[in-house]
Amino acid sequence: MAIDWQALYQVLRPATLDLPSNGRLYQDAVGRWAMRILGMMFAHHATTSEMGPENFAQQGEVLAKELTQFLTVFLGLGPAQTLTETFFAQLPALQSSLKHDAEAMEQGDPAATSVDEVIWCYPGFLALGLYRQAHY
């Protein structure tokens, strides 16, 4: 069976985005940022002790600045700042919703021993946490 790679490419080629020339680095940075936000809401996912009470506000400011920079690429500065403020204002509700989801996962899985286990170990919780950040 011969595969027509050119025809397949025409069908499957990814949509192009107007990303910076280092688009892959940009994508990686956004992924790391999202994990740090998850760590801000759940210590289980904090990569370091950077989210302790003594420097929570400082780290929050860094994350807010980074989000504004990410969004400015697509939206411009004004809308990016507004969206950043809205996102951080909704973090308590997002955390509450994710806690509820973790409790439901724990109750629905006879093998789960605790909500902490769900938050820390379940890839489904991680996926949901990242999805919710993008769509909350």
Structural class assignment: mainly alpha
**Helical amount:** over 70%
* Tally of DSSP helical segments: 7
Instruction: Determine the strand fraction and express it as a percent band.
Output: under 5%
Return the domain count. 1
Q: H/E series, N to C?
A: HHHHHHH
Profile the largest sheet. none
Average predicted local confidence, pLDDT:
85
Q: How large, in whole angstroms, is the Cα Rg?
A: 19 Å
Q: Write down the CATH topology.
A: serine acetyltransferase, domain 1
CATH superfamily: serine acetyltransferase, domain 1
Helix-strand blueprint:
Elements: H1 5-12, H2 23-41, H3 56-75, H4 77-89, H5 91-108, H6 115-121, H7 123-135
Give the gist of this structure.
This protein has 136 residues and is an all-alpha fold. 72% of the residues lie in helices and 0% in strands.
